[in-house]
Predict the 3D structure of the following.
Amino acid sequence: QVQLVESWGGLVQPGGSLRLSCVARGFSLRTAPMSWVRQAPGEGIEWVSRMDNDGSTYYADSVRGRFTISRDNAKNTLYLQMNKVKPKDTAVYYCTNLATGARGQGTQVTVSS
């Protein structure tokens, strides 16, 4: 059974950093393209970043240069390192298996002073 569990969201001040985790169960991250997406209050789903099977990475213009997607194959965990965060980064963040469409329950990130 494919399962994704996000964690380590929280409250962070503008300009601060946060690293989100997404533990994958039931499949190997090395075999599936993965994405981080987010949904701000009252807004639709926004794509944030993607990592392909071969490790290639892609970013939305709004986060390029501030966020980094990575994975630990041994832990079967996907990460999103968020630096220099802004209030507009406030959202629920989800990791998604692009091959199956499976998505976790999300983790809340709030950027506020």
